[in-house]
User: Which sequence fits this backbone?
């Protein structure tokens, strides 16, 4: 019985610590440390789309977009980019244009940080002294461009973990009382 309690507790602690960290991971186990001189440079040209969201152009120098090489071998100076909205990764882009669908990706109205991070073909980020290389700009998301009821998924995640812990505790209690 003690072994079962130890296994269940260990599993719950593992799940509780792994799930949040994976949600923030960009799946890269390494980085491509580069110099300021060789680093890709970018600016974001963001225009409001009349039908909703934003059309974004990532104007780059010193970088070659290589969509056909995604998830393959790294070659310096080429790759794709990861897009973040308010610190949450929302998509990959493989060329200089993309549409930011705020109805799909925004969890709230108001000013939010849109950022792109250059990554190699292997998804490892380009960094200068450990800091990601990319560009960022504030976008102001209107309230009519977010899904009703959308919000922070951390509440749901922690609620689910709480229910698992509570259920496992109840099961262990019943098993112990049955002896």
Assistant:
């Amino acid at each position: 019985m003690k072994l079962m309690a130890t296994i269940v507790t260990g599993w719950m602690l593992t799940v509780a610590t792994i799930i949040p960290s994976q949600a923030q991971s960009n799946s890269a186990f390494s980085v491509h440390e580069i110099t300021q001189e060789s680093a890709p440079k970018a600016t974001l040209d963001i225009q409001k789309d009349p039908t909703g969201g934003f059309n974004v152009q990532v104007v780059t120098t010193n970088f070659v977009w290589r969509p056909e090489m995604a998830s393959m071998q790294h070659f310096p100076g080429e790759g794709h980019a990861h897009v973040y909205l308010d610190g949450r990764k929302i998509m990959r882009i493989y060329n200089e244009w993309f549409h930011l669908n705020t109805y799909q990706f925004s969890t709230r109205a108001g000013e939010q940080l849109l950022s792109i991070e250059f990554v190699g073909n292997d998804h490892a980020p380009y960094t200068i002294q450990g800091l990601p290389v990319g560009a960022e700009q504030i976008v102001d998301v209107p309230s009519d461009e977010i899904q009703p009821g959308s919000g922070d998924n951390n509440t749901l995640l922690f609620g689910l973990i709480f229910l698992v812990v509570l259920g496992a505790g109840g099961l262990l209690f019943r098993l112990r009382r049955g002896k």
In short: The two ends are 10 Å apart (CA to CA). The helical segments are 2-24, 102-105, 153-177. Confidence is low (pLDDT under 50) at residues 12-28.
